[in-house]
Predict the structure.
Amino acid sequence: MKKIVALIMGILLAVVFFGGCQTDTTSGESDTQNESADSEGTKYLIGFAKGTDTPWMAILEAALVAKADELGVELILTSAGSHADKQISDVESLLTQNVDAIIMNPIDREACGVIVDTIKEKGIPLVEVNTFTTNENYDVYVGSPEEQAGNLQAQWLINNIGATGNLCILYGEMGSSGQIGREAGLLEGLGITVDSEDTDKWIVLAAQTANWVRADAKRIAEDWLMAYGDQIDAICAQDDEMAMGALQAVQEKNLEDKIKVLGIDGMQESVISVGEGGQAMTALQDAVAQGETAIEVAVKLLNGEEVDKVVDIPFVEINETNYEDFLE
Amino acid sequence: MNNRENKEIVGNENYMRKLSDSIKNNFKQYVVLFILILMVVVLSIVKPIFLNTENVANVMRQVSINMVLAMGMTFVILTGGIDLSVGAIVATAGIICGGAMKMGMTIPTAIILGILTGVIFGAINGIVIVGFKLPPFIMTMAMMQMARGVGYLLTNGNPITTFPDAFIEISKGGIGGIIYYPILIMTGVAIISSVLLNLTKWGRYIYAVGGNVEAARVSGININLVTSLVYTYSGLMSGIAAVLLVSRVNAAQPQAGVSYELDAIAAAIIGGTSFSGGIGKIFGTVLGVFLVGIINNGLNLLGINIYWQMIAKGFVIMLAVIIDTMTNKKEQ
Amino acid sequence: MADNFLLSMTGISKHFGGVQALENVDFEVNKSEIVSVVGENGAGKSTLMKVLLGINHPDTGEIVFKGDVVKISAPQIALDMGIAMIHQEISLIPDRTIAENIWLGREPMSFGFINWKKLYENTEFLFEKMKIKLNPKTIVRNLNVAQMQMVEIVRAISYNSKIIIMDEPTSALTDVEVKQLFGYIRDLKNKGVSIIYITHKLEEVFEIAERVVILRDGKRVGSSVIKEITKERLISLMVGRELKNIFPKEFFPIGEVVLEAKNLTRHNVFKNISFSVKSGEILGIAGLMGAGRTEVMRALFAVDKLDDGEILLNGKKVHFNTPKQAIKKGFGMVMEDRKKFGLVSCRSLMENISLANYSRYNKGPFIKRKTEVKLCKDMIEKVSIKAYSYKQRADSLSGGNQQKVVVAKWLMTQPKVMILDEPTRGIDVGAKREIFRIMTQLAKMGMAIIMISSELPEILGMSDRIIVMREGELCGEIDRKNATQESVMTLAFGGKN
């Protein structure tokens, strides 16, 4: 019995300790330009409820943390590890810590809508970044329009391959705003639906979800290459991770000249691949700009300034002509 | 005269009983084998390309990682335990392996470091489970968190990518362009696992510990050693799988390998390994791995929605467990 | 006069498989009476009580309660009628309060919620009636064993019980607590409750009971008002059966002392147990259930920890931390609970037999399969296990053959000392005979054998020497020549020899 108590105490201590470490309190030193400090000289405390732990999100987070440091804002970071329920409790714990504002990267359009109302009941500003909820009671959404990214892929297909062709789509996590928006943008750009069989336009041979995972994407692409072979003209992956997986499958069959692989996100590995003539294109979702803008918007709201409901950080197409500008 | 007649009848009966007993004991494996053959037949009729050598090699390569993991998982489940940390260990061992290469170490050194990482994590699992009498479910669940945490800590969430061609060759290359190295590796691992289980003392002890841990203990078996080695073996398998995965996707990522443990558990259970321990064979697990792999591949070839793949996989697991409980009930 | 009884059971018979557990037993209880039921292990006491409680259903017989013929088909019915049982083991939930335990499952409710106030009031009312000074809100874990027994009794009373059955209620109590309990029992009697008191401790029978009913081999062999019977008479009634000679005992010269145990002690379980076994000798350990016989052997075999004492093997001091070490030094032990400690029932016969022998026959990590098969086949023949293949699963064998598998496993280790704990439990007469035949052979080959058995005829039939244990202590040693059922039982029940 005593042992169990000791164990529980130990765990609690560890949680408090590591939790304390994670609570990345960045201070703005004695910066005189510190606009965010209110009249009493105390700093704003802002909570960032991160949804997923992808490499891309790590860049966004780093930019957000750096900007907060610059603005002299104190930050509390939480990470939900792709679980909507974890994110809900993350936000609840942020609220009990009396944050002045919350920046959230919602995991799920619908499920995370609950949190929006909880936050707004507290009367504090809520900025959604990168992804947004269907519950529109948030103050500002900072992000890149997902449809536009899909649209960029569609434009590339039409401009570089032609008005007709056969296409496979690798979806991200089904139901995520990225998956829904990018698919809509792609199909709209091509003027087709997933099931349409109009030979004057592009035709979708197959569409599967690889859940943003490279290994799954590779496996599925291998199966497609088996089933459809060089019938396929292009594989549109909804992010670069999956694009890399699909590209490897294509390259192992020496079909990279025949089958083009398109991605989204502007991941460095993909930018290099574009330069080497591997991946056909990618679209950069500017993680740094999104992260920096999100914190800036939050501070503006706290200072009582007006901000548009949607702040677009546009996607940028990266292809063989301009890839060099995006190499780090 | 009378006596001889009697003997003959007994002999005959014995033969019949032997046969029925063997079928009963391996019932699950026969069912899985039957389903497997049925699927192959149906798929090759509907989609002839399925039996294409290239597709067969594809499937083998695709299942290789799960095959290696499922070997370790079979050992663990045979002792009546479970290892939920497999996927997380794969991610972190992969990062160590990839990171070592990026730091300029030779490929063999990096591979050994990666595999060693798996072994160490596995050994920690085993030692804590045995030493503190923790339920394996709890300890390996904790390890799942810790190992993945280490992975994120080492990489800050960023992937390590672009490895030397010679390393990529591990998954890409092969003999005659069709017998890929991963196929050789998984075959080797399966054969070694089978030898360990059937022909060594340790193997027998694993079955005994899983079948009746108290009886094993009073029969003079060091159950702690047997058990902790089993988790170490599962860690070793995770290390090998990590090398295969990093080589296959040319990237070492902290978020890799999510839910790989579930696939490995599924393969072992479908293959007839009893969840309560003591019963199961490597051959069964091999069948289980292929069944899951063929479901994925076949449904992809047919262009069937991934959600149906999930339903199909779940259904097969359920079926396997129903057969398990039904055969056990009969014995009681 | 029969209609004056509160309860009367007449002509109760019950059989399990081929065993006649009860045969035409009559039993009756008066109002406000303390009646004790005594008998050897397996005499039918618990079966009789289970029939009364509706757990077992009699083949024939009639139960009359308060003048009406009743049919008790389930424990709940017995409880509703006012017949409650307090089991040997405490069955309270340790982390809940006294009151919660008493009313578990029938808490007073209001509006769908538990009415806590009423719950405690009801408990206090009962405590007042019983003159018990306990706070109903106390957590059960914090009570001593006697107090827990009290709570069990109060719970029984709370059903308005007319008859309370107590099964060995004092087995875990100290002397002071026993006095306390007896006080409560007398109070209950004065309030008109009848008590059926089951015990192995004859002195308790004489202290608390007013009447005693004696069972033997499923039959009622006597009944007496307690004042009119002596302890000696009671014991002879309990054991007075004829010995049938089914034992293939052979006599041959006995050798040197192989094992000597000195002052073996395990705190609160057994203490100061000393004995020795010689080569070729069968040492029988007799005693009642719970006397600590199994526990001593488990500690000797290093399954449980030994707190004190020393073990001499062939005159040399040995010490074991694990069964593995004991096996290495030449010990083998067939455990009491075959399912739990003996067999790996889902594995083959061969794997079971080999289990304790892999290190012995295989030097490296690998198994020599041919040797394994050969050795196992020899062993199967030697102890004549009836199986069609060595690959057969152990749980597909009959109980007797399963036991032979366990014996075979230990024989293969070629032990110097073989411990057999209840080796014939749950197996048929034929298999029993074969186990005895194997034991005789082993003794002839010079093995030292220790046998625990709760069946007196077995002990008397097979042992060269008998030691008797009672309540964790050694209480006597009898040579084969002087051993009779009466002499052993007198020791086991705590009488003077």
In short: The domain at 146-284 of chain A is CATH 3.40.50.2300 (Rossmann fold). The CA atoms of residues 129 and 279 of chain A lie 28 Å apart. Chain A has two domains: 43-144+286-314, 146-284.
